[in-house]
Design goal:
The complex is a heterodimer of chains A (368) and B (124). With 368 residues, chain A is an alpha+beta fold. Helix content of chain A is 22%, strand content 34%. Among the domains of chain A are: 142 residues, Probable tRNA modification gtpase trme, domain 1 (Gyrase A, domain 2, 2-Layer Sandwich), CATH 3.30.1360; 92 residues, Aminomethyltransferase beta-barrel domains (Elongation Factor Tu (Ef-tu), domain 3). Chain A has 10 helices and 20 strands. In chain A, helix 2 crosses helix 7. With 124 residues, chain B is an alpha+beta fold. The chains are: A alpha+beta (368), B alpha+beta (124).
Chain lengths: 368, 124
């Protein structure tokens, strides 16, 4: 099957972006260079096409109850205009996906979800299977979504919208006009910077993109997005999280509400958390100029203890960084397992290459 | 993208410039473009011997890592030490200041297997 085009495809071609197939979509991997785009987001304002992400809406008298049953976080606490991170778990508490829940009216009869592109079809099937008195619709193809990220994001967006961005705190959203088109703007992102994500009708996507570009937002691709999220230590499905990884392994127990009997995978999550995790997500910085990538084996005092889940060059650290899963044979808490490793040196074995590295606290970057 | 006609090429996206019994080796503009931002070039020291097809070094970019393969057999007589501090030169000027190593050939017949600029471009 040919990769799908987002509503912004023509904009990317006009800008001379280098396109790649990602999760079934043709998306820009870079416009200028990963390093330049990374700097744009850390210093100014970068603009990403994230239209590939799955956008679903659930309506009906059972909408909230269905989401509460399907997703780990407390959607019942959502007031109108607020959004919340959550996990879709398997019965065994494996992470089927991570996502955001949006409550447009604060009412129990309508919610929106944004999920990972690569899992969208699987997620929708799971959500439908777990639904009662509620109808799910997939709005992905009818809408476009962009992320405007960086310290200048609010200053760039404010002149284009009638929304009061200054009053919009983290994980809040509102609908209004942006560049003359109707849009839903949320203060969310995946880069470690301040910023917004904006959803509009597919047909209005190009207008929105071009207006933000004219306002000074710099176009950014998936390459810099990966470096930015890794510096901020945000997990990526298929790397740090997957169905063989549970929330307690990776520090995502915060997204699992206390009423564990109320959502699928909750009871298994609690039992696993109580017994303490079998593995731990940790951070590494490279001690050579080589960079350990996903799959590199980690050896500590000669023993194989785990594997790298993501690795890249970090402009912020000026060296290679990685996140990794390491075994936790003594079943310590994630906090304690991490604490005992911090400062220890290990070797990342990648094919014939051995890359020395040191365990460090996460994240690698936190905005000041 | 340009592939200078005075150079010879390998299927591994390297270029070879012949000067008597010594060749200069670098990566093509295609390879540089595919790798993106280059952050490290790992090279052996001068004096090492290499056999045609052997991995002699690696290039790390933000995105990925690529091996460098010896296009001919011989002794490495020079490495571009400037790349230690400015590895990005490989991407910015792949056919000039971004050269990587010079090899003194042990068998000039190795050159026969290399591609012309046209043949290389046709394989992309």
């Amino acid at each position: 099957m040919d990769a799908k085009r987002t509503p912004l495809y023509d904009c990317h071609v006009e800008e001379g972006a280098k396109l790649v197939d990602f999760a079934g979509w043709q998306l820009p991997v870079q416009f200028s260079s990963i390093l330049v785009e990374h700097e744009a987001v850390r210093q100014r304002g970068g603009l990403f096409d994230v239209s590939h992400m799955g956008r679903f809406r659930v309506k009906g008298p059972g909408a909230l109850v269905s989401v509460l049953r399907a997703v780990s976080s407390d959607a019942a606490s959502l007031e109108a205009g607020r959004c919340l991170y959550g996990l879709l778990l398997t019965e065994e508490a494996g992470i089927a996906d991570d996502l955001f829940i949006y409550s447009p009216g604060g009412a129990p009869d309508e919610l929106q979800l944004v999920v990972n592109a690569g899992n969208a079809a699987k997620d929708l099937a799971l959500l439908m299977e777990r639904a009662t008195d509620a109808e799910w619709t997939d709005e992905t193809d009818d809408t476009a979504m962009v992320a405007l990220q960086g310290p200048a994001a609010q200053a760039l967006l404010a002149p284009l919208t009638n929304l009061d961005l200054g009053a919009m705190r983290l994980h809040r959203f509102a609908s209004g006009l942006v560049a003359g088109v109707e849009a839903m703007v949320s203060r969310t992102g995946y880069t470690g910077e301040d910023g917004f994500e904006i959803i509009t009708a597919a047909g209005d996507g190009a207008t929105l993109w071009r207006a933000l570009r004219s306002a000074g937002a710099e176009p950014c691709g998936l390459g810099s997005r990966d470096v930015l999220r890794l510096e901020a230590a945000y997990p990526l499905w298929g790397h740090e999280i997957d169905e063989d990884t549970r929330p307690a392994d990776v520090g995502l127990s915060f997204a699992c509400r206390a009423d564990v009997g109320g959502y699928i995978g909750g009871t298994a999550h609690q039992a696993y958390l109580d017994a303490r995790p079998r593995k731990a997500l940790v951070g590494l910085v490279m001690n050579s100029k080589r960079i350990a990538r996903q799959g590199a084996e980690i050896r500590l005092a000669g023993d194989r203890v785990g594997a790298v889940t993501s690795g890249t060059y970090s402009p912020h650290c000026g060296t290679g960084i990685a996140m990794a899963h390491v075994a936790n044979p003594e079943r310590k808490s994630l906090k304690d397992r991490r604490a005992e490793l911090i400062g220890a040196e290990c070797v990342c074995v990648q094919g014939p290459t051995e890359i020395p590295a040191t365990f460090v606290p996460l994240p690698f970057y936190r905005r000041s | 993208m340009a592939y200078p006609s005075e150079l010879k090429y390998t299927e591994e996206h390297e270029w070879v410039k012949v000067d008597g019994d010594t060749v200069t080796v670098g990566i093509t503009s295609y390879a540089a473009e595919e790798l993106g931002d280059i952050v490290f070039v790992d090279m052996p020291g001068a004096g090492a011997t290499v056999a045609k097809g052997d991995t002699f070094g690696t290039i790390e970019s933000v995105k990925t890592v690529a091996d460098l393969f010896a296009p001919v057999s011989g002794e490495i007589v020079a490495v571009n030490e400037a790349l230690e501090d400015t590895p990005e030169t490989v991407g910015e000027d792949p056919y000039g200041a971004g050269w990587i190593i010079k090899i003194k050939m042990s068998d000039p017949a190795d050159l026969d297997a290399l591609l012309s600029s046209e043949d290389y471009a046709a394989k992309l």
